[in-house]
Amino acid sequence: MEAPPALQLQTRVNDRELDSHIDTSMNQQWRFLKLKHYKWWLRVILYVVCLLVGQSAATLLGRLYYDKGGNSKWMATFVQSAGFPILLPILCCFSNGSRSANTTDPKISTLVCLYVAFGLLLTGDNMMYSYGLLYLPVSTYSLLCATQLAFNAFFSFFLNSQKFTPFIFNSLVLLTISATLLAVNADSENTSGVSKGNYVIGFLCTLGASATYSLYLSLLQLSFEKVIKKETFSVVLDMQIYSSFVATCGCVVGLFASGEWKGLSKEMNGYGEGRVSYLMTLIWTAVTWQISSVGLLGLVFEVSSLFSNVISTLSLPVIPILAVIFFHDKMNGLKAIAMLLAIWGFLSYIYQHYLDDYKSKTMENKSKANEVSGSGSVIEMC
Known about the structure:
Elements: H1 5-67, H2 73-78, H3 88-95, H4 108-135, H5 138-145, H6 148-159, H7 166-184, H8 196-228, H9 233-258, H10 264-269, H11 275-302, H12 305-312, H13 318-327, H14 333-381
Keywords: Membrane, Transmembrane, Transmembrane helix, Transport
GO molecular function: purine nucleobase transmembrane transporter activity; purine nucleoside transmembrane transporter activity; transmembrane transporter activity
Organism: Citrus sinensis
């Protein structure tokens, strides 16, 4: 028995209204997801700029400190973490509305242990980097820092469930060959009077610092995921500020325990560009290291420790070229080949990240298509 025409018409109208409501809801959801995606990319781009600009400037300023008469390794280590107070106003702005209702705060004792452990790890790491900058040309130093990728892939495999792919393995091999070429190149380096023994110390310290920093990044990612469990920018700032505070305290203890503080006044007076230039070099080195650290921690938080290390090596072609221009570093054929191999390894990492991103987007589109088809099936049943 057919329904009356009026009832059929009303049913069609109700179906159209239901379809329109579902389409509107899906469009709003799609716009929200796109807006969220764009905001994520803006944050990532901001972190990338901070990391690249901060790291390049800090490395060059650190070398300038030694070239113009600075000699205190503890002071060079101190400025790598002492700039954290400039982040306090930013922390106050972001901490007001950044509380998350879905997660519980970890215990204070747990956070204190994390900050102290990471701060002490940074102290040792920064000291090894200071030895590397003291005894190595900037170009060699920056190329050796690219081995962070290899070390980070190793630690990420065990700590962060990072998978090894052919492109990642290719990158590891290339970076290892690049570092080996730099080691062979030691005899032909223009090290400005640095003995071969000190060159080896600088070489090993830079490798050790790269390994330590890669371990630090992997442990950071593990802490964000398993312990802190928050998705706010204030979490990144907290980690940077408190860890830097502990690292700075460790450097102050080392500065006084070693007796280097007694020679700082003489070092300032004998600095090649004058007292004001001495202070400005140290201040801006501290500021640029903090900018770099915020960018790096932000990328660990938003993406992964492996990706942050990949972006860190993006400055690889820039720093050696700037070092040749400003510090007259020797760029021979062997070092140029090492740089090209390291860039090739970096591009392998980038291409693997592109494949992972493409795969995730394809899966998202399939799930959205399934949702739309499922909604259509419900409408037909109604």
